[in-house]
Design brief:
- Helix 2 packs across helix 10 and helix 6 packs parallel to helix 8.
- By secondary structure, the protein is an alpha/beta fold.
- The protein has 11 helices and 7 strands.
- GO terms for molecular function: hydrolase activity, acting on ester bonds.
Length: about 375
């Protein structure tokens, strides 16, 4: 009788311990799933590099001409002016939403990383930035400087926040599944090559636009390989927009039988052609990498020439009243039908135009090749 009671007591204790073990591990599994729910989505993070096209406010706290933290910029953005040089959201905002991320990647300069706790990516883009360090305004982050900040993220921030999350296979696993978006190059022409007093670069001035395009591609390729060496594997790289169709240039020069300045478009197309070849080369030579080339050039050209086919009406005039520099003047009237305009100011499109580009790249077949972003994320 005594032995039976002892065995029953041992059995009860054993069952209790097993129950506690099961509950504890169930809770741990739930915690891991909660921290790893990004892994159940299309991508765990979005990392953004480039210029004002994708800037989220990295220039807000510095003294520079290239900052957009005032109305009417952000007039349609939920939180108001954010530093995005448009009416509302931009490409990274739509990409983040489509990928299932909780929030768009924040501007790295606006984040206090000691208290921030997200692992869904950062935005390093800086308005007026170029591929070459001398192309942007003072204070802006060149592409090289943006990658240096990302390197710090990889070495300091991510290990701290990923160390207890086994499902992502550490920093390398996280980065290999993340999306890397790059939009840059136009300022190397607008603020460097086309400026007579700034054509002598620190690496020697190329004598013509063909040589300059090759110089840019060489530098760009090195930067892309640097990102790869830091862990990036899935790239979305946009070419330079149809620069000659931007109001900042069309307002200065009227060409017969053309809505754009054709010589400027021909100039950047030399870069775009070389970029396409470089992307193909990197895709072949960098193991386990995948590259998408986004055709921003043709997108802008199509919007300007036939806005109605995209549900827009005005492909020529800016939505906001302009300063002499082509930026929005807060004292002037901003259009009310912003969703019908292609351009917000003289160099940037409206949220409506960005949305068309982002959605087409994410799930369409015309803007991004050889696959769309959704397919890339699922690789």
């Amino acid at each position: 009788m005594g032995n039976s009671s002892s065995l029953s007591l041992v059995s009860i204790r054993w069952c209790f311990l097993v129950f506690v073990w099961l509950i504890t591990n169930f809770c741990v599994v739930l915690l891991v799933m909660k921290r790893c729910e990004g892994e159940l989505l299309l991508a765990p993070a979005l990392y953004v590099f480039g210029d004002s096209t994708v800037d989220a406010g990295n220039n807000n706290k510095i003294q520079t001409f290239a900052k957009y933290d005032f109305l009417p910029y952000g007039i349609d953005f939920p939180a108001g002016p954010s530093g995005r040089p448009t009416s509302g959201r931009t490409i990274p905002d739509f990409f983040a939403e489509s990928l299932g991320l909780k929030v768009p990647p924040p501007a790295i300069r606006l984040v206090e990383t000691t208290s921030y706790n997200s692992i869904e990516g950062f935005n390093y883009a800086s308005s007026s930035a170029g591929i070459l360090p001398e192309s942007g305004f003072k204070g802006s982050l060149s592409l090289g400087e943006q990658i240096s900040l990302f390197k710090k993220t990889v070495e300091e921030y991510l290990p701290l926040h990923l160390k207890d999350i086994s499902c992502v296979n550490g920093v390398s696993g996280h980065l290999s599944k993340s999306i890397f978006l790059l939009v840059i190059g136009v300022n190397d022409y607008a603020l460097n090559f086309l400026k007579k007093n700034n054509t002598t670069t620190t690496m020697g001035a190329p004598p013509n636009d063909e040589a300059f395009a090759q110089l840019l591609i060489s530098n760009y390729g090195d930067h892309l390989k640097e990102l790869y060496n830091l862990g990036a594997r899935k790239f979305v790289v946009f070419d330079i927009e149809a620069m000659g169709c931007l109001p900042s240039y069309t307002n200065q020069k009227n060409e017969l039988n053309s809505k754009c300045v054709d010589e400027l478009n021909s100039m950047v197309q030399k870069f775009n052609g070389k970029l396409a070849l470089k992307i193909q080369e990197l895709g072949r030579t960098l193991p386990a990498s995948a590259f998408i080339l986004g055709n921003n050039y043709q997108h802008i050209l199509n919007l300007v020439q036939n806005p109605q086919s995209y549900g827009l009406e005005d492909g020529t005039n800016t939505c906001c009243g302009l300063t002499q520099y082509g930026t929005c003047d807060p004292s002037k009237v901003t259009c009310k039908d912003r969703n019908s305009h292609v351009f917000f100011d003289a160099a940037h499109t409206t949220e409506a135009a960005y949305k068309i580009l982002a959605q087409e790249c994410f799930s369409g077949v015309r803007v991004c090749q050889p696959m769309n972003l959704k397919t890339l994320a699922m690789l």
